[in-house]
Amino acid sequence: MEWSARFPDARALLVSVWVSAGFAVVSLAWGLVIGSQLIVFDGLYSFAGVGLSLLAVLALRTARKGPDERYPWGREVWEPLTIVIKAVALGGLCIYALIGAIGELLRGGREVAAGWAVLYAILATGAGLVVSLYLRRRGGQGSDLVRAEAAEWMGDTLLSLGVLAGFALALVLERIGHSDAARYVDPGMVALISAAFLRVPARLLVSGLREVLTMSPEPAISEQLRSRVRDVECRYRFAESFLRTSKVGSRLDIEIDFVVDTASKAQNVREFDAVRQDLHDLLQPLGYEKSMIVSFTADRRWAL
């Protein structure tokens, strides 16, 4: 608890863990009692979220330990690695649910107590919206793990909205005497929603793999870096500059090479250190931990 108080990101993730645990128990019990495959799927998804959220807390704690002899560049790679694991697990669950739903449809559907299902969907949608908005606010200035958690909750909220619409349709069909058609609503919604929801883990997987593979960061971050490096290049009249960067968790790895000629305003070690300080000050507002190497050469082949 003391550690989570020191790190708001961890506290936000723990809130997600506790809410997911309570939500999972209620969903599974409710779904089994009324015979809804979709609500059971919602509960299983929440149970998976509990384990993955705990893994995210552990990864965040590990990443914040910083560099040492074993991890000379830091442990931030644990953050995107956890996002990849989360994406694979949730994607697998969605595929499993999709296959099961198709089987139910082929067997003639499933009878569900639609009135109780509608009540569940209303409560689930409200709870999911509150938690996702809370995590989005925390993630705006926090780690990628919190933003990934917020995306997961928002996806779950959209799922609950789909559940609400579907069960409302089933209730109407029952009331107007089309119970046979209503039997297809529950497995039909599982198939549609699990297929649509695959977007969330797919997006998380792509973003996590980019960082695990140390690819360049998203265009918005890259452009901010290039703009600041160009400013320094012009200010000190360097012949050229070369920027290489990648984002790993909450850390930006940056290598900047300046080509120096006779017209450049920085020509010695002290002046080069002044350039480094200017770069540090310009990049500080980006809000990431930075591992930065700045080099200077009179021969551009050493910068390529």
UniProtKB/TrEMBL annotation:
Topological category with respect to the lipid bilayer: Multi-pass membrane protein
Location relative to the cell: Membrane
Residues that span the membrane, as ranges: 12-33, 39-60, 81-102, 114-135
Pfam families (UniProt xref): Cation_efflux (PF01545)
Domain Cation efflux protein transmembrane: 13-211
Domain of life: Bacteria
UniProt keyword Phosphoprotein, yes or no: no
Keywords tagged on the record: Membrane, Transmembrane, Transmembrane helix, Transport
Family to which this protein belongs: Belongs to the cation diffusion facilitator (CDF) transporter (TC 2.A.4) family.
Protein name: Cation diffusion facilitator family transporter
Organism: Pseudonocardia acidicola
